[in-house]
């Protein structure tokens, strides 16, 4: 599993990724996500395709330390989508692990995300990974935090 930039060569294949029907209310499509990124440059969107072998299997988008807004200077997992054909293989967990490593390498000490409540909500997935509720609500969604301890080194 690896994260790859979205280019003219893979854009249509990545845009074709779909979650299961019962998950659609919880995660926007790749097309919607790319439109949101384009119209909200102030959120400092950073996005990648999640590849499994030679095929795109998912999509991830962060708001990477935006200079303004409700998450100023913080890392916010804006979208995480694993195509229905690839779910249940640990790809979401692996992508989240890579993202957490990238944020930590950039000096980040936490990664935030949010979710909408309801039947089939993604909370169990995030809790299993280590996210905890912050007590904040953003845009009607519950905000979660993953603490990213920095390596202590040899000291």
Automatic annotation (TrEMBL):
<feature type="domain" description="N-acetyltransferase">
    <location>
        <begin position="1"/>
        <end position="149"/>
    </location>
</feature>
<keyword id="KW-0808">Transferase</keyword>
<dbReference type="InterPro" id="IPR016181">
    <property type="entry name" value="Acyl_CoA_acyltransferase"/>
</dbReference>
<dbReference type="GO" id="GO:0016747">
    <property type="term" value="F:acyltransferase activity, transferring groups other than amino-acyl groups"/>
</dbReference>
<dbReference type="InterPro" id="IPR027455">
    <property type="entry name" value="Sper_AcTfrase_N"/>
</dbReference>
<dbReference type="Pfam" id="PF00583">
    <property type="entry name" value="Acetyltransf_1"/>
</dbReference>
<dbReference type="InterPro" id="IPR000182">
    <property type="entry name" value="GNAT_dom"/>
</dbReference>
<protein>
    <submittedName>
        <fullName>Acetyltransferase</fullName>
    </submittedName>
</protein>
């Amino acid at each position: 599993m690896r994260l790859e930039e979205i280019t003219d060569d893979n854009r249509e294949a990545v845009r074709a990724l779909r979650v299961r029907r019962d998950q659609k209310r919880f995660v926007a499509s790749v097309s919607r996500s790319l439109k949101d990124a384009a119209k909200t440059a102030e959120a400092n969107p950073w996005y990648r395709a999640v590849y499994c072998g030679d095929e795109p299997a998912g999509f991830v988008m962060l708001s990477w330390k935006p200079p303004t807004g409700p998450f100023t200077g913080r890392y916010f997992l804006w979208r995480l989508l694993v195509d229905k054909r690839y779910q249940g293989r640990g790809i979401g967990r692996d992508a989240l692990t890579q993202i957490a490593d990238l944020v930590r390498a950039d000096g980040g000490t936490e990664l935030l995300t949010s979710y909408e409540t309801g039947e089939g909500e993604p909370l169990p997935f995030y809790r299993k990974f280590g996210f905890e509720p912050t007590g904040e609500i953003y845009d009607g969604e519950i905000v979660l935090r993953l603490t990213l301890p920095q390596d202590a080194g040899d000291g």
